[in-house]
């Protein structure tokens, strides 16, 4: 959701600039809750600041002549996830600016349910969701190296659904586990159930254990390299890792679904 100000001047002959109208704009998605606005007094303490409120271009009938008021979004027959644009017009000479007390209610929430999720032996992931109430990305995670690793991201449609998605990833040898993750404004992740698939792909071999220039794998693989302090120094996907820039010392190598060590000479 974005929040911005538009300064509009009423161009009428003889009208003081003090009466310029300012517009506070909020937009997002309807989440079933109303907005609450703190409304300061007008110039010299006479009247109130806000002069008009509109939702998606329609002027509201809410009572705005008070120090605080509610914008009743239910009056506009919105469905969960519908886009919402709220414009609050107010006088430029107010004793302060109107303040929306709960702007987060227009931010998308993670409400998805996975109806179906399949992973094919070639790494094609297909899933169907319902109940989305705003456009949030689906993060695709794979369990590797004793942790969940992000392997991709798909933009959510944000509608009630059913919504169909597809993503292409790479499987490691043996059993593979995948899940979906979504993050909304709360910062608390929501996860789908895990889906498992067994791959017939052979575990790659690699060499050398003592590295001068590069590490070579027998097949392309996802990899990570950490130094002795646990700092990630390289990551990627391929059959060769250029190690010339690494300082001498010991390193941890994660690849396929294995964790091993090597020394940079």
Question: Can you offer a commentary on this structure?
Answer:
The chain is an all-beta fold and 265 residues long. The chain has strands at 3-8, 21-29, 35-38, 50-55, 58-59, 68-71, 83-91, 99-100, 113-119, 124-130, 137-144, 147-155, 163-168, 174-182, 190-191, 195-199, 206-207, 210-211, 214-227, 232-242, 249-255, 258-264. It has three domains: 3-106, no CATH class; 113-199, Immunoglobulins (Immunoglobulin-like), CATH 2.60.40; 206-264, Immunoglobulins (Immunoglobulin-like), CATH 2.60.40. It has no helices and 22 strands.
Quick overview:
With 265 residues, the protein is mostly beta strands.
How are the SSEs ordered, and which strands pair?
Elements: E1 3-8, E2 21-29, E3 35-38, E4 50-55, E5 58-59, E6 68-71, E7 83-91, E8 99-100, E9 113-119, E10 124-130, E11 137-144, E12 147-155, E13 163-168, E14 174-182, E15 190-191, E16 195-199, E17 206-207, E18 210-211, E19 214-227, E20 232-242, E21 249-255, E22 258-264
Parallel strand pairs: 18-22
Antiparallel strand pairs: 1-2, 2-7, 3-6, 3-8, 4-5, 4-7, 9-10, 10-13, 11-12, 11-14, 14-15, 14-16, 17-19, 19-20, 19-21, 21-22
